[in-house]
Every structure is written in C-alpha cells, then in structure tokens.
Structure of Sugar isomerase:
Amino acid sequence: MTEHIIDPSIIEADNAAREADLRVDYDSLGERLDRRGIAIDAIKKKVAQFSVAVPSWGVGTGGTRFARFPGKGEPRDIFDKIEDCAVIAQLTQATKTVSLHIPWDKADPNRLKQAASRFNLGFDAMNSNTFSDAKGQLQSYKFGSLSASDAATRNQAIEHNLECIEIGKTIGSKALTVWIGDGSNFPGQVNFATQFEHYLDAMKSIYAALPDDWRVYTEHKMYEPAFYSTVVQDWGTNYLIAKELGEKAYCLVDLGHHAPNVNIEMIVSRLAQFGKLGGFHFNDSKYGDDDLDAGSIDPFRLFLVFNELVDAESRDADFHPAHMLDQSHNVTDPIESLMLSAADVQRAYAQALLVDREALKAAQEGNDALAATLELRRAFRTDVEPILAQARLDQGGAIDPLAVYRAAGYRAKVAEIRPEVAAGSSGIV
Amino acid sequence: MTEHIIDPSIIEADNAAREADLRVDYDSLGERLDRRGIAIDAIKKKVAQFSVAVPSWGVGTGGTRFARFPGKGEPRDIFDKIEDCAVIAQLTQATKTVSLHIPWDKADPNRLKQAASRFNLGFDAMNSNTFSDAKGQLQSYKFGSLSASDAATRNQAIEHNLECIEIGKTIGSKALTVWIGDGSNFPGQVNFATQFEHYLDAMKSIYAALPDDWRVYTEHKMYEPAFYSTVVQDWGTNYLIAKELGEKAYCLVDLGHHAPNVNIEMIVSRLAQFGKLGGFHFNDSKYGDDDLDAGSIDPFRLFLVFNELVDAESRDADFHPAHMLDQSHNVTDPIESLMLSAADVQRAYAQALLVDREALKAAQEGNDALAATLELRRAFRTDVEPILAQARLDQGGAIDPLAVYRAAGYRAKVAEIRPEVAAGSSGIV
Amino acid sequence: MTEHIIDPSIIEADNAAREADLRVDYDSLGERLDRRGIAIDAIKKKVAQFSVAVPSWGVGTGGTRFARFPGKGEPRDIFDKIEDCAVIAQLTQATKTVSLHIPWDKADPNRLKQAASRFNLGFDAMNSNTFSDAKGQLQSYKFGSLSASDAATRNQAIEHNLECIEIGKTIGSKALTVWIGDGSNFPGQVNFATQFEHYLDAMKSIYAALPDDWRVYTEHKMYEPAFYSTVVQDWGTNYLIAKELGEKAYCLVDLGHHAPNVNIEMIVSRLAQFGKLGGFHFNDSKYGDDDLDAGSIDPFRLFLVFNELVDAESRDADFHPAHMLDQSHNVTDPIESLMLSAADVQRAYAQALLVDREALKAAQEGNDALAATLELRRAFRTDVEPILAQARLDQGGAIDPLAVYRAAGYRAKVAEIRPEVAAGSSGIV
Amino acid sequence: MTEHIIDPSIIEADNAAREADLRVDYDSLGERLDRRGIAIDAIKKKVAQFSVAVPSWGVGTGGTRFARFPGKGEPRDIFDKIEDCAVIAQLTQATKTVSLHIPWDKADPNRLKQAASRFNLGFDAMNSNTFSDAKGQLQSYKFGSLSASDAATRNQAIEHNLECIEIGKTIGSKALTVWIGDGSNFPGQVNFATQFEHYLDAMKSIYAALPDDWRVYTEHKMYEPAFYSTVVQDWGTNYLIAKELGEKAYCLVDLGHHAPNVNIEMIVSRLAQFGKLGGFHFNDSKYGDDDLDAGSIDPFRLFLVFNELVDAESRDADFHPAHMLDQSHNVTDPIESLMLSAADVQRAYAQALLVDREALKAAQEGNDALAATLELRRAFRTDVEPILAQARLDQGGAIDPLAVYRAAGYRAKVAEIRPEVAAGSSGIV
C-alpha cells in the first residue's frame, strides 16, 4: 500500500471546501466545450494519464555562479529527496516518477528501489554527470569528458555512464540521458571535427552497453558552461548523433537550450517527423538557460510545443516521448514550484487537446491564416484549470495543491529534522 | 582576347605610383613570415587562385521595405550588370564568375554567354526565384511556393527551377541554388510536417532533373520574409534535405541567416565533416540578414570561417565549396563595395593559411587553450594586404582597386548612358 | 448621424444568433469573478472606454523587401482607407481614431476631416515620413534626414514635420509622432555624437512649433532600415531626447523595436515612473520588427505590458498614454487582422484589470514570489472574451466581428470598385 | 624600491633574444606609419601611459554554476592575489593598480596598503558585494539587497557599501563600484517602480558618504543572477541613476552585460556625450556575460569601443574613464590570460590612435561611407604588436610576457607553497 506523507485528512478537508465551486466550474466549462463539440470527460481522462518526471536535484534550492541561498529544510540526501518527490506526487497526482543524477544520488540501488516503492514512485531516465569532478576521480573534466583530447579521460567518462546503466537496470529505469558540458572557451582551443569524432566514438561505446529495451537520450545546449563552442550545440548536431548511434538513440529537447528567437516548436516537429524526438526537459527562460518554472515566462510557447506533440500523436500511435521537469528554484520553495509546474505542463497538454484538428487543417489548406491561428488561440485561451483540478481530485490529489501543502506545514516539519545549510558565496564570478 | 572596360593605362599609372612601397611592404612581410616558417610566395599563389562569384543583383543599389535610394548609373539589365561585374573582375582579379537570378536576368542564353565571354567571365550557380511573383505568373507565391498547400503552385515553382537548370546548361553553369521564403506568419498557419513534406517532394522533382555533373545547393535562413516560421530555417533542416535528396545535394551557408549568437564556424565544420557543405553566401550582419559587406562588422568571424575551410581542405583534397558574395549595397557604390568585399574574403583566406596547423594541433592536444587561440590571433593580426595587392598586380589588376576605379570615373560615364532611377518609397511597411 | 458601412441588420442578425450563449458565458464568468471580489460590469465599463487608434497604412497589405502580395480590394487612397477604418470601428467599437502618415495620406485637410466625421472617427497622432524620398523632393534622405550631415537635408526634414503639424491642427490631431530611419550601415560612416547633436537640434526646431496642447512622441528602434547603428536606437536615447526637448515630449514604445530578450514591460515601467511614457505602437514579433498581429506570438508579454499600465494608472490619475496598432498584414485581410488585434489589446487590458493589486503587493512585500506570480497568471488565464463581446454588443458592435465581416462580404464589394494591384517583386534584396 | 617577483635576469635574457627582431619590426612599422603621417613614438608614448586595473578576484580560477576546476597554485588570500597581480604588472607594465572586492579581500587596510606598495601597485575602485551572503550576515540577500522590500536588508547593504568606502579611504582608492544582482525571477515577483525607488533611496545614502574627490560607478547588466528582471538592467536605467545621484556618479560599462546584437560602442558614445561615462569592465562574450578574455571573441568590437574613447578624448580634455579587466578564467592560467588581455586592451587603444580623424570626419561629412569605414579598418588591420612590445621593453617589462612567465616557472613555484584546492561540483544546476 502506498504511504502518504501528507495526512490525507488535510487534503480531504481542503478539497471539501472547494469541491462545490469546482463542480460548478467544471460543468460550466463542460457546457462551453460541448458547444465546440468537445467532451470534457475525455480530455480529463487524457490529462489524468499524463505524468511528468521530477528530477531528484530539483527539490533542492538552486543557485547561480554568484551565490546560492538555501531554503529551510533542504533535503540532505537522495532519500530526503524521494520524500519531497512523494509529496509532489501525492498532491498533484501528475508526477509518477523520479529521475536520478549519478553520482549525486548514488546509494545502494535496492535501497533506492524500496524507498521509491513506498510511495509508489517509479524511476525515469538515469542522468550521468561528467560536467563536474567527483571526489577522488582520477581524471579531471576541466577540458572535457566524452570528447576530451585525452583518452584516459574519455574512458573514465564512458565507464561512468556504464555504471549509470547498471544502477538503472536494478532500479527499473529504462533510459539514460547524457548531457555534457564539453566545448571550448576560446577560438582554436579545440578542433571541432576531432572533438566531435571523440564524442561519437565514446557514445558508441556507451550505446553498445544499452539494454535492448532502453533508450539513450542525448541533450543539446547552445552554451554554458562552455562559452565559445559546445560540442552538442543544437538539434542539428543532436540529430546527427542519434542517426550515428542507432535506433535506440533519441534527441532530448530542453526548452531553455536554444539560441535567442529560435522557433522551438518547429524543432519539435522536425525531430518527431524524422523519428528522433526522445523527450523533454521542461522549464522556461527569458535570456539563456535560466531554468525558470515551466510556463512562467511564455505560456503560449509551452502550448505550441504541446500542440506539436498532440499533432505527432495523431500521426504515430507509437509516439511516446519522455517528459521531465528540469528547473532551478532559486527564490521559491522547490516543492511548490514543481507542483505548479507539473500542473502547467498538464495545462498546456489539455489546451492542445482542445484544438479542432479538422478545422485547423481546413484553414491551413485554404490558406486562411487567421482562422488557423484563431483555432489555436481559442484552445489556449480556454481556462482548463477545472479539468486539471477534477483530475487531481478523482485520483486522490488536491484541488489546490499549493494551499494544501502550505496548510500541512510540510516544510516547517522537515526543517526541524534537516539541519540548516549555510548560504553559499560560490566565489565563482 | 579579353576586353577591358577600364583603360589599362589608368591601372598601370596608379600601380606605378604604388609599386615601390608595395615591394618594400611585401618584402618586409615576407621576412616576418619567414621567421614563422612561412613562404610568402606560396600564400600569394593560393590567394591568386582563389575566386569568389559576384551576384548579378549585387551591382544594383539595394534597399529595405522602407525605401530604396538608387545611385547614379544603375544597371538597366543583365548586360549592364555583366559590364559592372567585368569592372570588378578586371580591377580585383578575384571574381571570375557571375551568378544569375532568374527571372530577373532572363535573356537569350546564347547572348548571355557571349556577353560574359567578352570579359572572360564564367557563370556560377543559377538562382531561382519563387519568393516573389513575376508578371503574368498564374499562381501566386503569397502562401508559399515549393511547400505551398496548393499543388498547382508547387508545380509552377518546380517548373521554374527546371527552367533555371535549362538556362544554366546553355551558359555553362554547374549548379542550382534554391532559396525560398516559404514559412508562416502565425502559429497554426501551416502544419510544419505537412509543409516540409511538400517541400521535400518538390525538391525531389527538381533534383531528378539535375545533370550528373551539377550540384544543387539549398540555403537555410532563420526568418524573413516569413516571421513566425520558415520551412528551411536552419542547418539542421538543411542537412536533412541534403540527405533526403542525394549525393549531388549540398547545404549552402549564408553568414547572415542564423539566430543571434550562433557559432557559425562550428556549423561550417559540422557540414564539412559530414560531406554536405556546398558553399557560401558571404556578407556580414549585426542584427539579422543585414546583408552588409563581408567582414565589415566582424572580421574575426570571417577569419574563423576560413580557418575551418582551410582545416577541411587539409582533411579532404576533394573539398571545393562554392564561394559567392551576397550583399545589399544601400549606401555605397555597389561596385566599390563588391571590390573591397572580394578582397576581404581573400584576406580571411590568406590569414587562415598562415595558421601553423601543427602547432595548433599540439596546443589543442595539450589543452593549452591560450597557446591555441594565440596561434589563430597571430594569423589574424597579420596585415596581409601586401600579399593581396601583389597577387592583383601579378595578374594585371590594381594594387588599389578603389583608387583606380574612382580615378577612371566609371560611374560618371555609365550615368551618362543609363537613365536616372527615381527613389522608391516602397510603401511597404 | 454616424454613417454605417456594414448594414446594421447583418450585425443584428449575427448577434441575435449568439446572444443567448454570450449571456450564459458572461453570467458564468461574472459569478467566478464575483468569488474573487471583482464586479464584472466595472471591468466591462473600462473596456468599453478603451480605444486604440488604427494606422491608415495598416489597412493596405504589407510586404517585405523581397515582395509584396496585395490582396483584393486594396484601398486606393486615404479616403478608401478611412472607409476601411470605419468598418473596423463599427464592428469592434474599439478603434475610435485613425492615425495619418504624411505624405502618403496628404489631401485637403478639410476633406479629410469631413471624411472621418461621416463615421464619427477622430484623428490620432500625425506621422511624418523622412525615411523615404517623396517624388519631387529636393534633398534625398539616403544618408539621413533630421540627423543628416547636410544642413539643407535636415532643414527639409524639419519643414516636413512642421507641415505635418499644420495639417494636424486643421483636422484636430493633438500629437506628432516622429520615427526616422537615420543611422549608418558601416562602422565609422557617421560620428555618433555629431549625428545625435544634429538630431537634437532639428527636433528642437520642430518642438518649438508644437502647439501648447500637443505632444510630440519620439520612437526608438534598434535597427532597420539602418543595419549598423540607429540614431534613436533604444529607450535610453529616447529618454535623453524627451528630457532635452521639454515637457510636451514623450517616448513612444513600439513592442517590436527592441533587442532580443529585452524585458519590455520594465522599460514601460521606467518611462512611466519618470513621466516620459507617451504611448505605444502595438504589434508582436518573434525575431525583429516583424510587425505581426498584437498578441499573436506572445500574448503573456502583451498582458505584462498592460499590467504595468494599470499599475501606472493607479499611481498617477493623469496618466493617459496613446495607444495605436502598428502592424504589417502580409498574409491576412488587413481589416480582419486589425479587428482582432484591437480586441486582443482590449483583452490584455481587461486581464490586467483583474489583478488583485492589494494581494499582489502583499505577496511582493512578503517575498512570496510564487503567490505574486500566481496572481498575475490567474488574471491572464481568465478568458475575458465574454466581457469584450458584451462591451461590443452594448455599443452596437458585433459579438463576433470576424463572422459579421465575412458574412457582409465587404472585401468582395470593394474589390468590384477598387482595381486589382499587381504583385510586386520589389527587386530590393 | 619596487620589489620584483620574477627575477629580472630572466626577463633580460628573454628580451635579449628578441630585441633585434623587435627593432626591425618597430622600424618597419614606423616607416609604414610615417607614410600615413603618423609618428610611431608618439603612439608608443600614449600606450606606455595607458594602464588597466586588475581585479583581485581575477587571479583565481573562475567557474560556472556547474563546476569549478581550480588550477595549481591558487592564491589563498588577498596577499597571494597581490603577488600574482605584481607579476602581471612587472611583465606587462600595463596594469598599475589592483581593484579589491569586499568582503572577499577584507584585511587590515594598512597591511593591504603595504603589500601593494612593495610592488609599487596602487588601488583602483573598491567593489562591494551584496549579491551573496557573507558568513554571519544578519539579513540574507536572497530577495535583493539595496532594492529589497525589507528595510533592514537595505540598510545592511548600505552599511556594507559605507564600510567599503572607509577601507578605500585608507588604502588610497578614489572610487566605489556598485554592482548588485537584485531583480526577480518571476513576472510579478517585484513591483518595478517600487523596487527602483528602494534602490535609488539606498544609493542616495551611499552617495552622501562619498568623499568629494571620489566617484561612484554603477554598473548595469541585462540578466544573471536574476532571470526575469534586473533592477539596473541597461544603460538607460544606469543613466537615470547617475543623474539622480549627482555629479560624482557615473555609469560603468561591462562589455558582456548587454542584450544580444546591441551596439555597445554607441552606448559608450552616448554616455560620454552626456558626461556620464565612468569606465569599463573589459572582457569578451559570445552569448551572455561569458567573461571571456578581452578581445578574444570580437577584437573589432573592442577596437570600435576605443575608437569612441579616443574620439571622446578629442572632445573633452578632462575625459578620463576608469579601465579594469573583469574576466573569469576557467580553462587558462589566470595570470597568463590577464597579461594577454591587458595587452589586447592596449592594442585596441593603439589601433584607435592610428585613425586619421580629419580624414574620417571629411568622409563622414561627404557621406562617403566606404572611405570612412576604410579609415577605421586600416587602423584596425595594422599590427601594432611592435609598439606594445617596445613600450613594455622601455619600461622594464617583457617583450613576450607569456614566454617569460612560462620560462620563470612562477606557477610551479607558488604551487609548492599554496595547497591544492579540490575541484568543486557546485551542485547548483
């Protein structure tokens, strides 16, 4: 039986106070959607089935190179983190898996498995880390990891990824996500072609160790931590990698990893069309890889991404990209942000489901640009909160997860157990 | 025998006044290069062999959607344009071919061939135009051409490209460049996947008509004239196209067609490494597709592109991308800008040839980032003007093309023949 | 009595078919807002009072430097344009004024006044044009206008602005908007300080002629048509200008005239705080000055701008910026786009009015970042379409302006009178 | 007498091996400049007088939020840092002052003064730090410092700045530089106007404590560490601040703190023209605030900035902005990078001095855009290394500082004394 961290009676009490209004709003929305030929319950069902993974590192307070300002009750280790993730899952019913980062989350795999199964949580993709040096590591990644000029360094990075696969096998993960920071800070520091050859060779060794029912996701990013060039800098290079590796290799799209002004939803479409869209790291950004909360800066863009996903689903029944949040919570309680972001990702999905694809297609074929875009706008403007809330309620979650979370006093409680962490002046500027 | 538009005696007189200083500077530079183990004459020889094509449309004054301010003596037709190109070739000895744009340059192909051969000019790639409507055209390209939802429109665009190939066969061109403005201005206006399928199907029809010894270059561009999405938006999509079409298909890189901050030299490297770099449209830009003179805004970037080209040459003896200028001259005499830009492209090539690739490789392998970047900087900082000037002089060109051009009074002379063109308020805002 | 171009019976018939549903939706929304302590009728009243000006040039099909693809029934002159604007005003009841562009709209001022008053339309700001050369103009603006190095050119540009003021006085305008394209295409082409001195001197001459009850709006833009530097490049320079000129001088913000990633709503706040926010040119953009329909690309950003305006209103009762649409309609019927954009601007205003400013302030003061942003999100997510529709209905407009416009067949009717315009290959690339 | 850390005999030996070639190159360059009417010795004199400050924190290895990879022999404290700075000064003779960061460099002011005077080093501007929390600090800067909503936090930040002024008085500094990270990560998190009022009030308190012969420099930055809004986001806001504060307040320009594509040299011109340009933080960037070595990515931009400075000097004899390097050295030996960057800043200055300002002005006034830009290009293309080297040699520095530094084995020596620092996985993602 699933353990509950938040006392269900708190949820029930809060829900009870909100349920009547929700019923009115759900019915009213249902009637409006009915006029548009949409059955609200069918949308709710799809929303309820949708889950987005929570990254273990997301429940700790994030920071920048300038400073980190920890909150109260910071998780001490992966087991604390799993408990925080369980709270998110319990209240939102939208985050059924956790994604681990090795070596940060390294622990006895069987213990990891047990800790998660207490809360009926599964494990999403494994994340390797060769962008920083772990204690005791023989070779430094200062000048690169999988693409380093030094063979011993590359081999160490390969071995680390193989270890991630091994841990993942035990805990029931089915995918490995590889993001590296390799690149260069000066024109001429690396030879682009040689560096990419090193990378491809190393990835082939990792790919060779991938179980048959696994996928490997490679993730591109324009810049940071490398500031002149990055080896997997964009979806073009990412696509080349997935093609070179084979059919278990897919591209992962982080919404904050692109050049300014780039049309991300179009990249989503291209990768889906050519069978190489593996999944997402959801977050939002205004400037660079800001890792802000999903949908907090440009909610229409998030909707347009989901519009492509629903379109791709309609073309390919076997289309099932992986969804994960990947955010840095610097000024909010991470649990609060993750709960709301999970809902915002669901929201974009629900809105995309409202698009009348036949009407859209007719407008597109008739070059009626205005009617086409109005079809999208109408879906986006629909306030689907009642659908999300009802889906949560149906599954035992909270109509208003934030209100329940605050009422339950979870953060204050863990702060009594978990020791205060000193604010960090990283000293890196 | 090659006809000369500028009286050779004017060139000789100007050269005579500059030759002694040039000799001193060339020798002094030769001595400094000799210390670095570089033979100046070998560099000069390579520079002399380098040629960049001039686009026929480049010799007319350009403009923006706000206005066009023509200069004096604007060319009236392709035959005037060929004469202007001949002046550039004569003075710089760096632009041995002209690139035509159909239907703008449509004329009896045999007459075109004769007009060019008078000046010993060849023809570079043919450029089709389906981004604007020609008079009398049945279908409009308002909603797209090769990727339009309407089949008749797509077929018309295919036919136009086939016609370009036919003209090109007669005049001795060996390539077709396809740039289209197709895209959309509103989210939802087009279905990205459907639109791209239309595009690929259309391009396959064109590819099928390509002679065996031809290449087709497809050109990507982030935006403009479409402002929400563009069908061939970046090198990733461009690469997909070249792979889908076949071995005669290559990607063309215009330096101004990328997102802000993008590392263009890295794209050059990737395309070269995967055998799909077809060539360049050289220009410079600060904001978008500004089409400013090559090297006028960021000369170091132009050098870094050539650094990749010289690196690619060293890996593949058969590597021979096409080079063309593609600029919009809004406030200068186009002939002057094109002469200087041709020299600036040669300059970047010459500087890239100065890089000690063995020393660079050693620094890269040793992770000596500073030594590696210094090797590039040293090459870039070298003032190679004496090499360029000597190469021009050796071939009958001008030591100082601008001075000779102004002294010869060419613009004033053609302004007597060619009627004044009224300034245009395009009325398009 | 106001003349009506669209037969009111068509509006009535369409409204009749929609009114019952609107009533249900308005009441349902009213109930939900009531729970949040908001009176829906008070919001509706403010929306009904809100008007955005339509630019005369906006009713013609726009284009790019590559091409213009005119639609059917293009307006032939300012009198056709006024009729098109009257249709927009009639159906939306949201656009009570028209903004003229001289010399494009030059005509007998009294005739202009009569033409507009037929439809009860007023005139918004006058717009001068020194970014293109008018026929017969003595000096060319190729190298600048108000900031040109040549004094005769500057004087001509000043005279043109004085003429705009004179016309405006007759027709009842109360403001002059000055946007110029002056800048440079090459480093060194102009001396920044000298050019700005010329500009300030010229503007002072114009300012001196401004009637006491007028305002002058200067408009900044990052780039285009100048591609290396622009004399009024950003709000910093624009603010300097307004300070130098005096208390009748204000800054105008066009949403598409900023650098990538810039936080525009913050600029709005700064200018409002320092008393120099004059007004807006509304449109949307993804890349540069794309001039797409307001709210079509990033509706949340438009909302955030209005959030600042409502905040500024609450600080300063005398705050009354000018609102104008400024869009280029390249692939839609301009009347349709302008009707929808007027509604989308109203929508953002209505949503901003829903923000609970006391709750927002409390969250801000308590550093509860999540509660603060949720307050904005909740307002933005509210589908206020019933409020907009009811406001239109109350004033004699259409519940669904687009449906009525299409049903009325206006475009087909004027296409019978107004001759077809040939598609333009601008020939400017 | 000035102490020397690097044994002068090592410098002399290396110089001796290079002096003959330098003599040839200096004379040859002198002859070429002489033809252009330029006296090489006058340029050398100005270069020799030019100094750029070294930031104390620059001599430690930098990092990103992902990781920091320390080098060998990292300085342990400010006294080690001063020694590293002394090496840079000794070899380059171009960095006569050090800039301190409090509390990082906090120590007995008299000891600081003595430590620096041993090497004849002075102190440049004091830098306060309210972007991270120091140990034992009562109020956290998590939600802002000088602009925080909490008054006690603002007061603490003010007090810290007053302390910086006090320390600076003792050690002979004459300026305070204030950069803060205050801003917000979510729309609505702060009220822009209120936040700016708090900031201005706090800065007024600091300004009031500024000695009469001091300057205060405020520094703008577009984003990071705040990712939705930043209180001092651009030069427009920075100018407002300097005007509000008074005549001792000036704007500081960091080259990496602007929006993509922004014309920085124009901002330099505007601030200089309006008397508010205080100085620079030199570095280079490709994406954001990358803090790469000055001139390493876009050397022409650095030149264009100095072109404005030389122009401003010619207008205002009293113009004397402060120059400081501000870079993050993640993959190089910081001392090596700083030595080369100091030279690259001098290089840009030397090249800007070569511009024939009369010829430039004539071309500008005649609208000869090409001649104007050629005048700048000619200056930029001139390889002025012999001038820099000779200026170093004349003052007792090294012709080739990098070669001497490596030959002297300084890093290895200090690595014996200074303990190894563990690589940091910041754990902040």
In short: Chain A has a mean pLDDT of 97. Residues 345 and 409 of chain A are 25 Å apart (CA to CA).
